[in-house]
Amino acid sequence: MSMGSDMYRQQILDHYRNPRNQGELPEPTFSHEGYNPSCGDELEFDVELRDDGETIERVAFRGEGCAISQASASMLSEKLPGMTLDEVDELDRDDVLDMLGVEVTPMRIKCAVLSEKVVQDGAEIYAGEADEVDQTTTED
Amino acid sequence: MEATEQAPLDVEAIRADFPILEREVADGRDLVYLDNAATSQTPDQVVDAIADYYRRYNSNVHRGLHELSQEASVAYEDAHDKLAEFVGGEDREEMVFTKNTTEAENLVAFAWGLNELGPGDEVVLTQMEHHASLVTWQQVAEKTGAEVKYIPITDEGYLDMDAAAEMITEDTQLVNVVHVSNTLGTVNPVGDLADIAHDHDAFIFVDGAQAAPTRPVDVQEIDADFYAFSGHKMLGPTGIGCLYGKRHLLEAMEPYLYGGMMIKKVTYEDSTWNDLPWKFEAGTPVIAQGVALAEAVDYIEDVGMEAIQAHEEELTEYAYDRLTETGDVDVYGPPGDDRGAVVSFNVDGIHAHDLSSILNDYGVAIRAGDHCTQPLHDTLGVAASARASFYLYNTREEVDALVDAVDEARDIFA
Known about the structure:
The complex is a heterodimer of chains A (140) and B (414). Chain A has a single domain, classed as Alpha-Beta Complex (Sufe protein. Chain: A). Chain A is 41% helix and 20% strand. Chain A has helices at residues 3-6, 10-17, 67-79, 85-90, 93-100, 109-126; strands spanning 30-36, 41-49, 56-64, 135-137. In chain A, strand 1 and strand 2 form a beta hairpin. Chain B is built from 14 helices and 17 strands. In chain B, strands 4-10-9-8-7-5-6 form a seven-stranded mixed sheet, with helices on both faces. Chain B has a four-stranded antiparallel sheet with strand order 13-14-17-16, covered by helices on one side. In chain B, strand 11 and strand 12 form a beta hairpin. The longest helix of chain B has 20 residues, at 67-86. Chain B has two domains: 3-39 and 305-413, Aspartate Aminotransferase, domain 1, CATH 3.90.1150; 47-302, Aspartate Aminotransferase, domain 2. Chain B is α/β, with parallel strands linked by helices. The interface between A and B is medium-sized, with 22 and 18 residues.
């Protein structure tokens, strides 16, 4: 089997059908949303930090879109708690692809990395390291 | 299938002219190419015409007095005649070669719209317009103070012609309508819209990108003021589009691009413009593409446009029926027996991009996304759709391959 269907392994489909941490947090430290114009994927993440102001306590997300983008958000939501914002900042494309555990075809990379970009941009804006933007897009 | 249902096309012989259809994709699967509304494949005859041009008489046109330049010039000029005639225009003076349909839209927007429109003027589009016209006239409106209006669509995906009759008024300067919708497949009553526009002294620009490749077009019968289409969607090369315009309108319009070839007399102070259509073709034009597109027209005319249309309509209806037989597929637009050769759809629970990725594994090439009609997709209430589109070389077996691959996707997502 070639690459495309390989993307739809059980783990991806499971997270797509039963997204973890879907919903809203009652008191998020910050929230941020993003959009992937190539697929029309949308994601919004709520992040709550611990009292130290830098470690993620929990996250929740809401979204619509293709299986890759939504599964990626669900899996990232499980990975984030316990990470510091500095560690989040260091995440890159390869970390996301490792997390997904499938080979993502070149045309679908943007779907895969949307969740990571949304959380990173939200964290940067919260930390005052980036200008306020309403929405992250994968075209930036 | 009964013999009487067979369209009179020798599809097997046609496919032999398209070697690309023989290739394998996705680790050994036969290619099933159903993305023709995006771009069509190119027959050997057209590829040979390009190669012949470069091998035998590649030269710049209208400048050199040498033999190669003469041959290239004559072939390039004749291509204009051929394309003008293809859509029912009178002669080359009414046929401008552009880069694509989008550039044809921009040519009229810049050369006419920016100069003629102002506050109080209206440009009437449709909700099913392609970004090529929609974005372009939005920008013209922003720069001139004119207003853009959109004729709504009905639940079935037809234009609401009652609304059209009310929206096109004395304030309307231009109606821009897609002849065949690239998303819904709707075949719009462009002749009726031309009548309404002309009753109010407005012009009509018909976007024929999906129509010119797939059905006989007669701009005089439509009474279109402008009619645009793209070479690469009708067996021709990329890089060339066509703008038909009524002679008196093109004569009155300012140039769009300035430079060489579009001039007659140049001094340090001022310049005068060349005759039609060269006034609108600044710089070295699309010579190889023009010659090759003329060859594509020959190919289409040899096969017969009526036969091509009949073949596509049969395939489209078959695809519509097969895709909708399970009940979990939404197909957008008019019924299967009343549409152009595109079928845009969504399968319950499967995003169009996921579907397209899986179809690709079975060798099936379709388009997935918004097909350059984002506002229309908003109207339909979906972010994206999958789109299969057919041309003269497609077969019922390929439609079956599409339906089978959709089944595989269902199994994966079940």
